[in-house]
Amino acid sequence: MTASTVAARRPPLVRSTPILGPIRPFLGDVLPFLTEMRATYGDAFRLRMVNLELTCLLGPDAIALLQADSGLRTGTAMHVLNEEMHSLLPSMIDGPNRKAIRKSHHQFMTHSLESTRRVDIQRWLDDHTSRWEPGARLDVLSEAQTQTVDVLSRLLNGEPFPFTKRELGLVVHTMIWATFGHAPRLVLRNPAYRSVQRRMRAHLLDLVAAIRSDPKRVASTLVGHYLTFPPPPELGEWTDSDLVSVPYGAYLAGFDTVASAASFLLYRLLSNPEALARVRDEHDALSDDATGPVDPASQKYLRAAFLETVRLNPPGSTVLRFAERDIEFGGYTVRKGDEVLIVIAGDHLNAELFPDPRRFDPDRFLQPGVADLKRRVLPFGSGIHRCTGSTIGELIAVEMVSNWVNSFDLELDLGRRGLRTTARPFTQPSGLRVRVVARR
């Protein structure tokens, strides 16, 4: 067999149930399944589910390919977001202007933004938890989603979140499934979705116009930050219609990912009393020296617990890409046009990196020389398409959970079915409820 013949081989096809294929793991926590397939087939393999074929790539070479910004594109249906938002900005995520657009996000959504608004953030969180009375039974994911989008809306858009969580969920998930999830375009005709989407867009058009006309809001919002950058040549100018996608992003960014991470973090702490005690002791010690709310970045043990949580329960284990050309990977050929699933969490359960990988152990990330280990945990993607809100997202998640566990005694109330993991499409806890025991 010649080298060229070997290079032309496609990755092996995973044996599975005819027609449906291994669809069930993808409806919940898919990471254990993908880890098992890697042990059997190596760092490259193919999956067939219904009429879909995915080429799965794992390991450092897969992450390097994702980071290289060469040969892969985000999607083939970004025009769906363009049409639904009436904005050209979504499709520019793959265009020549992406670096400038991402730069505007990175410059605004920083630790500095959190630190300057920390007192406000604590007040907003306290407003949400003011109704948490002893005996109350709370849906953790619902609480996390509501608080996350409200804090992000206030921070990035300069207004309280103006819709219900249910309405936002309908819009976000419909758009995601229509763009990335192989759902038929018919889902966009859902009357309930269309009604909410029209109201949401009308409100955001008014918001953009109000920001543009107010210098103070220009200086304090993400839309205003965009206005300080020259528009892409394709746009010529920043129109209100194009800028509508910016406040949309504040809602889409954290609704599933940040809220899911915060929910699982609370579950892990309540399931591990020693870890919870250390989080509280750390917060108490920092509070003694603080002149205001504790800096979430200084809560080293809680941040290690966050990292350990997203290692075990990443909001997204994979990212979907499309091959723009033939790509050689590990002795196999990924063909132009193939749908490629980069498993960014591929090393999260690697026993060589994380001994006893299923055990919750935040101390893994508090030992000397763990910088490389931390880089193996990728909860918000990797490369040029890594979530631009990852810094502020982690800080908000840590701040929110810190507020909960240091203000309340909570106990798990999982019910008969216990905790389940679902994918909608990001990994989320289902059935995660807590009971408020007392205020602290």
Verbal overview:
- This protein has 440 residues and is of the alpha+beta class.
- It has one domain: Cytochrome P450 (Cytochrome p450), CATH 1.10.630.10.
- 48% of the residues lie in helices and 12% in strands.
- The protein has helices at residues 3-7, 31-41, 60-67, 78-85, 98-108, 111-116, 118-129, 140-157, 165-180, 191-212, 215-220, 222-227, 240-243, 245-255, 257-271, 273-289, 300-312, 371-375, 390-407; strands spanning 44-49, 52-57, 72-73, 137-139, 319-323, 327-329, 332-334, 339-342, 408-412, 420-423, 427-430, 433-439.
- The protein has a 5-stranded mixed beta sheet with strand order 1-2-8-5-3, with helices on both faces. The chain has a 3-stranded antiparallel beta sheet with strand order 4-12-9. A two-stranded antiparallel ribbon has the order 6-7.
- Strand 10 and strand 11 form a beta hairpin.
- It starts with a helix and ends with a strand.
- Mean pLDDT is 90; it is low at 1-7.
Highest CATH level, the class: Mainly Alpha
Q: What form results from the Cα inertia axes?
A: globular
What is the tally of helical segments?
A: 19
The total domain count is 1
What's the name of the CATH homologous superfamily? Cytochrome P450
Using DSSP, what is the number of strands?
Answer: 12
Q: Low-confidence stretches at least 5 residues in length (pLDDT < 50)?
A: 1-7
Q: Rg to the nearest angstrom?
A: 22 Å
CATH topology: Cytochrome p450
Give the fraction of residues assigned to helices. 40-55%
Largest sheet: 5 strands, mixed
In the CATH hierarchy, what is the architecture at level 2? Orthogonal Bundle
**Rounded average pLDDT:** 90
Strand content: 5-15%
Structural class: alpha+beta
- Major sheet strand order: 1-2-8-5-3
CA(first)-CA(last) distance: 70 Å
